[in-house]
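hiii so my PI (J.) wants the whole complex modelled not just the main chain, which honestly fair. so below is everything: two entries, each one labled with what it is. i double checked the lines twice but i was tired so who knows lol
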Amino acid sequence: MERIPVIEIFGPTIQGEGMVIGQKTMFVRTAGCDYRCRWCDSSFTWDGSAKHEVEWLTPEQIWQQLKQLGDDRFGHVTISGGNPALLKGLSALVTHLKEKGVRIGLETQGSVWHDSFDDIDDLTISPKPPSSNMETNFATLDMIMDRLATHRGRVSLKVVVFNDQDFSYATYVHQRYPSVPFYVQVGNDHIHEADDVTLRLNLLQKLEWLVEQVIQSKHMNDVCVLPQLHTLLWGNRRGV
Amino acid sequence: MERIPVIEIFGPTIQGEGMVIGQKTMFVRTAGCDYRCRWCDSSFTWDGSAKHEVEWLTPEQIWQQLKQLGDDRFGHVTISGGNPALLKGLSALVTHLKEKGVRIGLETQGSVWHDSFDDIDDLTISPKPPSSNMETNFATLDMIMDRLATHRGRVSLKVVVFNDQDFSYATYVHQRYPSVPFYVQVGNDHIHEADDVTLRLNLLQKLEWLVEQVIQSKHMNDVCVLPQLHTLLWGNRRGV
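here's the output for the full assembly
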């Protein structure tokens, strides 16, 4: 039985980001990442700080936990990380969830292909901008976007933007894959801010800035600009 | 030349609602409505208060105003109201905009069919809940949703929710048309609140309530819960 390292399972809640913003869903967060983004809001998935929380679970064990939490109150499951595309056991989980009749969302940075991408209903590829300190391998990303051109579900690109340089990067990515639905998202650089009001107003101010960048750019006409809805709602808390 | 009554044209900005949330777009707001929703945030389109602002414009005149405002910085136009479906001249405008190569979004309450619905790329049908004091004619809505079953663009239903009764109504609408992507949206009952911080925090609190209703309901598993993004950003101001 193939097991995958799971760091948290929670829900029902709503999706906070990108093409699936607002979607009622359950979350399965896998451990392990090939990236180390400077501003990662889930660094506990890779920095060792939540090592003791990682459980190696079979698809059926994951399903049991989902049912226990969500009972008959969910129809959509989001697999997030970390980078779930690193996990060989992902295919078995995706197959199992499909058999149970739920729709599946998955988010990954587009650094690695995984055959199970083909079976994801809502697939978000989120390459990381310069502020992350990571470097995009565009040869790999090209290959992935090429293979996704015939995808049967919904596919989108999403770039988090913290500053002007990130916005240039987002523009470049959108122009490189112009036919793929494109989302720019406000970065949260107050990941340790405990005061929700301060955080909310700060994020909305940043969103206003990002909207203005998009409005002014003739290269960003067919894009969506979004906040992280869960951060506006629940601040930096985990498990919601 | 067919003219339509236009009450404001503005943009580029972003869409604040539903399936097109965050989408960069221009707005053409038409005058006149068959409804009188109690909490309407655009009552100036029908209550006579902005009568002097109404201009009867040809499709080319509308296009010229869009170009003047948006130049080469837009690729999407939203037609909103009032209820644009009431206007015979709508077809000519939609045809003209299509010829110019822009994508078109349109929102209407689903009280009247219009042949130009077939040519809309992003069509939102937004029946009004009990708190509006309006009554839905479900025979008409059935007919409209039936005709839209073979629509080539994106179609969704959106219901604004202010209270428990509205939420029951939303649940009913979703169950009546289960295959149509469904959005519930937080109502803004502070349409005269001038203080943006108060308004923002109030809306986010309401959003949290609505998310909780959706989480608890087994009939609302495949839905999206969203705020009005433009109200979070810009409060009750017009023309943004």
